[in-house]
Write a structure and sequence with these properties.
The complex is a heterotrimer of chains A (about 325), B (about 150) and C (about 120). Chain B has eight helices and no strands. By secondary structure, chain B is mainly α. Classes of the chains: A alpha/beta (about 325), B mainly alpha (about 150), C mainly alpha (about 120).
């Protein structure tokens, strides 16, 4: 590792399979047909939305084991995360499996953190097969970070919609897999002093910019090296802000740049404010849509940059600013 | 880039609330809720001509709270709120909604520690400050009765 | 009195309070709890300054249905209590006159919450 960037030199950290379960609203979005499963009802006959999210998380891991015909004994470790309390969803989901578990938390960037940790384990040879999974649920996040569901208040135009769903990636140490993780840049916590809780996009933009610039400098690559550069959940306005600010630093994010939060919904029609957010946002978009495009050969090199706003209800009530974080993961299809 | 400079850019670049639209909606929703209140008041007065106005007023408030409670319970009030903004927040119905909504939300944590304990997580300050302010005004009236005699 | 005119007055007074509230929300990003508190205290102050009564006479329900009316009610009760019964009246008068609203909210809130559950927004 040099200056935040890790190169997986053995070139054998590959994606074996992915699985996703998306909520009803996500299923109606533009990526609906790419998701492996779409829920009709996001309560799943459970007593609470927290239980429902746990069930989705369990199901997605079960699905990927079924798809690959592997048993829990074939998996060395699960790196999982979510944004609920003390990560109760992932922890409770892992009660169901006889697999070692490492919990990861970087808010909505948790999926990136999981991928980087897992890739290091595989590249170094400590592990051979790992699962990276994350989940989020609109109704659990809304209650924890914002207001009760039945409260009649308006969402500001800057607010984002927490994605309901869970997704996982099964990574294997195998030189022959079509899509590989070749390098990653670990982000720093960046805080430019944004205080408006509804404006998470603006809070995360400096972190995303810092990580992107560090990545380009370290790898001596230009943005056009990638067929697709994807930030996690900046939302529409903040992703345009990022484009503008990074241009001043001499990097042009053009046609090949997009944001998972923008891709996952029909922003205007589905009334989601700036777009999607949440731990499942970048996860669902990557595991369903981007991975599919890479297998089809439409995309060769992808830079996935999950972003997270590291806040809690207590910190915002006490008037703290909102620090952001972003990790960059470079994926290449052979 | 400087912190302050970034915050300035954010303020400039990020989209703003649609003032005109939200204000018209708030005006219409708020006005309509008050008209409904007036209609309830007049109806009650028509059927109970001998009851004092103050009492009819109390009935009206209670009926409005009841309607809000039911609308919140069946999941309609949050949609009214999404449309009306302040129009459905600052009326007594908005107050009732802000009591019922957290109560429903926290029912899963049990009746005592969930529902009852969380009933006033949003409306609590209204009651605390309202009563405190009324006591202050009362004590002022006690000390300077001349100012408050009608 | 012309009933149409009366209802128009109710509509305009109630709507104007809400309009002011919306301007506050849009420009200051206040949450609903803070908006409620501000308007409640505004009601207390208006009543104490004897400005609420004329608004109420003009706007009727337009002035009593917004939370401002609740605040004015609290203040009116406290003043009345203080003038009639001294200290104890000052302490209890406000709560007494707002008792219907408070008890209504608590009893109805409890009953409704028992019979309903939170729904995901679409």
């Amino acid at each position: 590792m040099r200056n935040q960037t890790i190169y997986f030199k053995n070139n054998d950290v590959g994606i074996l399979e992915t699985a996703t379960i998306a909520g009803p609203k996500e299923g109606e979005g533009p990526l609906g047909r790419y998701f492996h499963n779409v829920l009709k009802d996001d309560l799943l006959k459970q007593k609470s939305y927290e239980k429902a999210e746990t069930k989705i998380h369990i199901s997605v891991i079960k699905n990927i084991l079924n798809k690959t015909k592997l048993t829990p004994r074939d998996i060395d470790c699960v790196f999982a995360g979510d944004i609920l309390d003390e990560m109760i969803v992932s922890s409770f989901a892992m009660r169901e499996f006889d697999i070692p578990f490492i919990g990861v938390y970087n808010a909505c960037a948790s999926f990136g953190e999981a991928l980087i940790n897992a890739s290091c384990m595989l590249d170094s040879g400590y592990m051979n097969r790992v699962i990276c999974s994350t989940s989020s649920h609109f109704s659990t996040a809304e209650r924890q970070y914002r207001f009760p569901l039945e409260l009649g208040n308006q969402r500001t135009p800057l607010s984002q919609w927490t994605v309901t769903g869970a997704g996982c990636t099964l990574l294997e140490k195998n030189k022959n897999l079509p899509v590989k993780i070749t390098c990653a840049t670990i982000g720093k916590v960046v805080d430019f002093g944004v205080r408006d809780v509804n404006d998470m996009g603006a809070a995360m933009t400096p972190a995303a910019m810092d990580t992107l610039i560090t990545h380009f400098e370290n790898t001596k690559r230009k943005p056009d090296y990638y067929d697709m550069i994807l930030t996690g959940d900046l939302g529409d306005a903040a992703s345009r802000l990022l484009k503008k600010l990074i241009k001043r630093q001499g990097y042009d994010l053009d046609e090949n740049y997009n944001d998972c939060g923008v891709l996952i919904y029909n922003r205007e029609a589905q009334q989601v404010g700036q777009g999607g957010s949440g731990t499942a946002c970048s996860n669902l978009v990557f595991n369903a849509y981007i991975y599919d495009k890479m297998l089809q050969g439409d995309l060769k090199r992808v830079l996935l940059v999950p972003t997270g706003a590291l806040i809690s209800k207590t910190s915002t009530l006490q008037g703290e600013t909102m620090p952001g974080i972003a990790h960059a993961i470079c994926l290449e299809a052979v | 880039m400087e912190n302050k400079e970034y915050l300035k850019t954010v303020r400039k670049e990020m989209p703003k609330s649609k003032h005109a639209l939200t204000m018209v909606r708030a005006f219409l929703t708020g006005g309509l809720i008050c008209v409904i209140g007036q209609a309830i008041f007049d109806t009650l007065k028509y059927f109970m001509p001998l009851v004092v106005e103050e009492m009819i007023h109390q009935y009206t408030i209670t009926i409005l709270i009841l309607i809000t409670g039911i609308l919140t319970g069946i999941g309609v009030y949050d949609k009214i709120g999404k449309f009306g903004g302040a129009g459905s927040i600052i009326s007594i119905t908005g107050f009732a909604n802000s009591v019922v909504a957290p109560a429903i939300e926290h029912k899963r944590e049990g009746y005592i520690l969930g529902l009852c304990a969380n009933m006033f997580t949003i409306a609590g300050p209204v009651i605390v400050l309202g009563i405190a302010a009324s006591v202050i005004v009362g004590i002022l009236a006690m000390i300077f009765p001349g100012l408050f005699l009608r | 009195m012309n009933i149409f005119l009366l209802y128009l007055q109710v509509f305009v007074v109630g709507g104007t309070f809400c309009l002011i509230g919306q301007i506050l929300i849009n420009t200051t990003k206040l949450t609903s709890a803070r908006i409620l508190v501000i308007f409640l205290l505004l009601g207390v102050v208006l009543e104490a300054a004897r400005l609420y009564q004329p608004i109420k006479e003009f706007g009727q329900a337009g002035a009593t249905v917004p939370i401002i009316g609740f605040g004015a009610n609290l203040a009116r009760g406290a003043i009345k209590g203080a003038l009639e019964r001294g200290f104890i009246g000052a302490m209890t008068g406000g709560v007494q006159s707002a008792a219907a609203g408070l008890a209504g909210v608590i009893a109805i809130g409890f009953a409704v919450a028992v019979f309903s559950k939170a729904r995901t927004k679409k």
